[in-house]
Amino acid sequence: MDYHKRLDIAEMFQEPPEYKPPGTAEQLACSVDYPNLNSQQYRMTRKPSPNILHPCLEHAARNANGQVILAGSDYMGRRWGSSFFGWENIDDVLNDAKISFKRQCRYCITAMQFTKDPNLFVIGTDKGSVELWSTRNEARGEGYSLYLVDGQSEHIEGVSAMDLIEGGESKLVTGSHDGCLKVWNYAADLHSVKTMTMAHTDAITGLSTNRADDSMFASSSLDHSALMWDLRKPRPASSLFEGHKFGFTTVYWTTKEEANQVVALGDEAGNVHFIDIRQPDVPTHSVKVFNKKIHKISFNGTQFVVLGDTNQARFYDENLALLHECTPATNYLRDVLWETGETKEKSTCWLVGWDTFIHKVEY
């Protein structure tokens, strides 16, 4: 090789002095002399993101004071993102004049929940981060003052599930698409205190803590297994339901008042299974709810609602009898907020879904 004839790559790709492309978007659009400036034209013509609640509502949260947060995602743009808006109470939701706070995010929110402190909430994102947000602080004066308390990016893949750990300590547990579980403390700042790297061999789809024991929680995964965890043990995981024909998509650990502390599992085939933790791998009851995968199971007393990848919601009692079903939306239903203090004669909830959908259901 003749090194005297080698090319100076940096000089070759240096912008020549006579290179003067159009300086405005209008001039660039009319120019045929510079055909390879697509990215430059996009940057010139791209409009700033509007501060709106994105239409694919995925998550809803309400604290002890009745304040409500809705999180929506934008799946239509060139770059996916999310936004969350807050209101003082659920009757004000979607009223632009009564918005308490709002925020645009350059990531998709995959989990959201209020903490025991009504002014703090936690979100998980598709970039693997967990963020602790505050809605107000006495040091900042009266009224709402939204700010990020702390954020940590410790999951390699996106956060796919999250739940608070009940008890005296301020802890929560998160799971990700790579099968990793993390336990966090959010008392002063946000930091992980325990990591289970290979908790599952596929994406973790659901987490639910035992509200009677702050050391125990259940996890579900697409690896066709559900596990029960006890953080006091050297080997904390034990089988809850393994070897199932379908992947599990959600989990809910009931209280003694709701269903005697059984664990409800939803799968990809649209079934809901109930497991007694004293006799794992053998469902006490199973019910076929949808022909598509289960998205969420939520209890209100002895009654519960099941949402799937459909626009329908189905409500059941403790005997798995169908109490009510409705199809109020034209697109997916994603979350539910129950009205507290309801009697057995009347139940009320709010269903949240895509196309900026929120609807009150009474039955």
From TrEMBL:
Keywords from the UniProt entry: Cytoplasm, WD repeat
Q: Give a single Pfam family match.
A: WD40
Which windows of the sequence hold WD repeats?
A: 152-185, 197-239
Q: Which InterPro entries match?
A: Methylosome_Comp_WDR77 (IPR052139), WD40/YVTN_repeat-like_dom_sf (IPR015943), WD40_repeat_dom_sf (IPR036322), WD40_rpt (IPR001680)
Recorded superkingdom: Eukaryota
Its protein name is: Uncharacterized protein
Write down the PROSITE patterns for this protein, in alphabetical order: WD_REPEATS_2
Annotated localization:
Cytoplasm
